[in-house]
Amino acid sequence: MARRGVPAAVPPEVGGNSAADPAAAHAPRHDDAAQRLPQAFAGKAITTAVAPDEDRPAAWSPRVFALIEWRRFEAVCEALFAQAGLQTRSQSHGADGGVDIWLHSRNASGPVAVVQCKHWQGKPVPVSAVREFFGTMAALGLKRGTYATSSTFTRDALAFAQANGINAQDGAGLLQLIASRTPEQQAELLAIAFEGDYWRPTCASCGLKMVPRSNSTTGEPFWSCSQFPRCRGNQAMTAAAKARLEARG
Ligand SMILES: [Zn+2]
């Protein structure tokens, strides 16, 4: 995912995040964040627990991508490559240099390809993002790369990907790929999608789970790092997460 710095109280687009905090980079990944809300914050804490969806799908559909957080989306993409026999390595947070997953084969020492994942909903991936990824591939000396998104690509982005050997996989393409796998593999991928607090985003800066808060001026809910103010990671809330918050009162 593209890492961008944003002010703490202004949620970026879904999947965006704030500057990395190197000190927090090796903090434990799993965290019961809702129990440890920091006292001081520009926004108001929302104390209502965000509970998992009770009627989560039992089979793959676009709704799965809508319900899960970006880190689960990356994990599904990684598992798709692992099922295809590749050795994978991922970096779930911090500065990633424009790479989310490295792909290795047994016959080569370095990575053979890299993957960029964009868990976006509604907004198509623009050509600028695919161009940036191509630049990353070139800097790494790699000719192969996959750009995966839960959303779609603009026509320019697709044309650029095709012209430069980038495998562009949109949400529909990923679902087709998943549908071509054995029932056991599809079930394995679904279990990975819904692993743990699948609905609660991971802080892209420090790798801990985020907590819901509301903007003190607009009342708009957003996700804030559970480690605020030590970590200022934040991101906008998906429609699905907002609906769940509202349903819970
Ligand atoms: Zn954080």
TrEMBL record:
GO annotation (BP), single: DNA restriction-modification system
Classification via SUPFAM superfamilies: Restriction endonuclease-like
Region (Disordered): 1-32
Keywords: Endonuclease, Hydrolase, Nuclease
Gene Ontology MF term list: DNA binding; restriction endodeoxyribonuclease activity
Restriction endonuclease type IV Mrr domain: residues covered: 68-178
Domain of life: Bacteria
Stored InterPro entries: Restrct_endonuc-II-like, Restrct_endonuc_IV_Mrr, tRNA_endonuc-like_dom_sf, Type_IV_Methyl-Rstrct_Enzyme
The name this protein goes by in its record: Restriction endonuclease
